[in-house]
Structures are given as structure tokens and as C-alpha cells.
């Protein structure tokens, strides 16, 4: 084997991944985040975590699903 290029771009399943991009993977899949979008994605994740904490609190209080549904759906509006 011989290295042709180091820190160069690669294409994985039709997705261009460049040096510095963030790769996140677990047993459900792989996500490539362009370096210039990493901060935006991080802030979005932090926002979702906060929303889910509120939802967990509502669920723990055994409130009706009608009160939980708006919290869940606002993410997709």
C-alpha cells in the first residue's frame, strides 16, 4: 500500500468529506458535518438537548400527551 494523499478530500457514498470536517458515527449511522457548519450544528444540538430536558420533566410529571405534543412538534415547524 502507498499513501497517495494525506488530508485530502474523499467521497464516501456520494458525500464529499474534506480535511477538517467533523465525522460523527454510532451504531445507527455516520454523519459528515462540513467544518464551516460545525458551530451551527453544535448550537442546534444544544438547543435540542434543552428542549428534550423540558419534555422529560413534563413526562416525569405525568401530564397529558396534549401538553407534550406542542413541545415535540415545534421542532418540526
Describe the structure.
This protein is an alpha+beta fold and 77 residues long. It has a domain at 38-76. Helix content is 42%, strand content 21%. It has helices spanning 38-60, 65-73; strands spanning 10-12, 15-17, 22-26, 29-33. The strands form 2 sheets. The chain has a two-stranded antiparallel sheet. The chain has a two-stranded antiparallel sheet with strand order 3-4. It starts with 9 loop residues before the first strand and ends with a helix. The model has no long low-confidence stretch (mean pLDDT 87).
Task: Summarize this entry quickly.
42% of the residues lie in helices and 21% in strands. The chain contains two helices and four strands.
Question: What characteristics describe this protein?
Answer:
alpha+beta; 77 residues; two-stranded antiparallel ribbon
